[in-house]
Design a protein that fits this description.
By secondary structure, the protein is mainly α. The protein has 23 helices and no strands. Among the domains are: about 25 residues; about 100 residues, no CATH class.
């Protein structure tokens, strides 16, 4: 074992004695106020880092026994000061409640006395809770207030519903007073928990005081006032959860009333109240100073998701009342779209120069959604498809001019809806070739995709070029489908009218099969020509793929099915096109060989 250096031990002891001397001097200076000025006048010299050995000498020694004793003392003090106190309070409340229950069962106290005891007990608990709040027991104080406020609500409810001591109007006023007092208490004490109690009690009041009769005006007027009160609290306090509670309570009371009492003769008044509810919640981003106040800085779930749910809830309410009147629902959708556009514009004007882009675009998105809904409500058949296609074109144009990326996604959704409906849902009955509703609808879709491919390359970034290529592929596919369907329907009409003429019927079947190959081959050649002129390898590869598919059809299908002149024309036409394309590649007009050599 290596022995420590005696000189190091002496140096460590000297340092330890110096540290103890400095501590004694500091203690003397603290006990002598007159020396404080002298202490401040003495310049402080920086101390060198304390050696590890010195640190070990300076640290106070502690044993496991002392640590265990300290922890036991803390636990004992916590149990004595807090837990026994709270358990004692709960035990007292339980004992008093059992006493009252026993007294009620033995008719010691009449109905009026029971109500008075409940009211006094509730008020007493609220007042008593202030003593705990003053002493720092805030959470426990709020718990007592919750019990007291609940006792007040239940006492008023019992006086009206159980004992019939007061009329419904008096009970309603009393509960409103309790709710208003709770709101005032919450605001003064900056207590969101108390505000939550007022919210629950406020929305429970109509349920507790229900007489089974329809009082739409009184009920919804009260709910409107309560929603406004909650919104006012959210303006001055960062209590966003109250907005969700207010929204949920409004929906629950509205749905409960609608299922129980609604009739068509009340429709106009119900529309007014549903619109008022929606207007209150639509004002949340404006009233709460979204993105400006430090309490509401930046986007939040409440101020982004709640407007969406509010808009959906309003339209569902209107749809339930006007389900069989699509024309009226269309006007409602358009009016709502205009309203949300106005809210977005008002937000931009109220908070200029701030980060107001998100809420503004959110309201624009809601307006676009209502316009998209209005299209199938008002239009029929292919006009719905055309409406969605035109909407996608307009949205894409606006998104390019405003640099609003989210509008781009809405446009893509509208375009997908239009194309999907065109391919899989729309049913057409054509009587003429080309000049019919189906070909016109396909032409609109092709024009929109062509506009995307043409104008998009002027403004799109490198990341968006892939979507433009997808638009080109979709354009070509829709063109081929449209031309093939036209040929198919033309021959189907001829076949239907000549079904009894067997030789002519067979010739029409062969001609239909040949027409498909001819259309695809001509279209592939046209694509190849465009690819060479535009020097676009992407277009040329599409042509090659289409021609390869046509080759497979000619050799695998036309050989066995077509006969006579149709088979001859198929192979001669295919061969001519392939030789022409081969000759162009051999001439190397695009200088592909020099590029590959480089």
């Amino acid at each position: 074992m290596r022995m420590a250096n005696p000189q190091d031990e002496i140096d460590a002891l000297k340092a330890h004695v110096a540290a103890l001397t400095a501590r004694v001097y500091q203690l003397e200076q603290r006990s002598d106020p007159a020396s404080e000025a002298r202490q401040q006048a003495i310049p402080q010299t920086p101390q060198p880092p304390t050696p590890l050995r010195q640190q070990s000498l300076e640290q106070p020694l502690s044993s496991p026994l002392s640590t265990f004793t300290s922890e036991n003392e803390n636990l004992e003090r916590t149990i004595g000061q807090y837990w026994l106190n709270r358990i004692g309070i709960v035990a007292m409340l339980v004992g008093v409640s059992y006493f009252l229950k026993y007294a009620f069962e033995n008719n010691w106290i009449g109905p009026g006395g029971r109500v008075v005891i409940g009211l006094l007990g509730g008020i007493g608990l609220v007042i008593w809770s202030e003593r705990f709040r003053d002493r720092g027991y805030v959470a426990f104080s709020y718990s007592l207030k919750a019990v007291g406020i609940g006792a007040l609500y239940l006492s008023v409810w019992g006086a009206f519903q159980v004992f019939h001591l007061i009329p419904s109007s008096a009970a309603f006023v009393a509960m409103v007073i309790v709710t208003a007092a709770t709101i005032a208490l919450a605001m003064s004490q900056d207590a969101e928990l108390l505000a939550s109690f007022s919210l629950v009690g406020g929305f429970a009041t109509p349920v507790l005081l229900s007489t089974g009769q329809n009082h739409e005006v009184a009920l919804f007027s009260y709910v409107c006032l309560l929603d406004i009160a909650i919104l006012a609290m959210a303006i001055f306090k960062p209590w966003r959860r109250l907005l969700w509670g207010s929204f949920a309570g409004t929906i629950i009371l509205y749905v409960g009333w609608y299922v129980t009492y609604y009739s068509e003769d009340q429709r106009a008044l119900t529309v007014v109240f549903a619109t008022l509810f929606a207007a209150i919640f639509a004002a949340i981003p404006l009233a709460t100073r979204y993105g400006r106040s430090t309490r509401f800085a930046g986007p939040s779930v409440t101020l982004t998701l709640l407007p969406l749910l509010n808009a959906a809830a309003l339209f569902l309410a209107l749809y339930a009342m006007y389900e069989g009147e699509p024309g009226t629902l269309t006007w409602f959708a358009l009016v709502l779209a205009a309203g949300y556009l106005a809210v977005g514009g008002a937000f931009e004007k109220r908070f200029p120069g701030e980060d107001s882009k998100l809420p503004q675009l959110l309201h624009v998105a809601i307006a676009i959604a209502f316009i998209t809904i209005a299209i199938p409500l008002k239009l029929d058949a292919q006009w719905i498809t055309i409406g969605w296609l035109m909407e996608s074109a307009v949205l894409l144009r606006i998104s390019v001019r405003t640099q609003a990326v989210f509008l781009h996604y809405f446009a893509v959704v509208a375009l997908i809806l239009g194309v999907f409906r065109l391919l899989f849902y729309d049913q057409f009955h054509t009587e003429t070739l080309v000049f019919n509703a189906r070909f016109a609808t396909y032409a609109v879709a092709i024009a929109v995709l062509g506009g995307i491919a043409g104008f998009g390359r002027r403004y799109a970034s490198e990341k968006r070029m892939v979507s433009l290529d997808v638009a080109v592929v979709a354009l070509n596919l829709l063109s081929l489908i449209a031309l093939t369907l036209e040929a198919s329907d033309y021959f189907d009409r001829q076949i239907a009218s000549n079904r009894d003429v067997i030789p002519f019927y067979y010739q029409l079947l062969l001609a239909r099969g040949f027409s498909y190959s001819a259309i695809w081959l001509v279209y592939g050649a046209a694509l190849m020509t465009i690819g060479f002129r535009k020097r676009s390898a992407f277009v040329r590869w599409q042509s090659l793929i289409l021609i390869a598919f046509t080759i497979a059809k000619v050799f695998l299908y036309d050989v066995s099915q077509l006969g006579g002149s149709y088979r001859i024309f198929s192979f001669i036409g295919l061969g001519a096109v392939l030789l022409g394309i081969s000759f162009i590649y051999q001439r190397d007009w695009l200088k592909l060989s020099s590029r590959s050599s480089n």
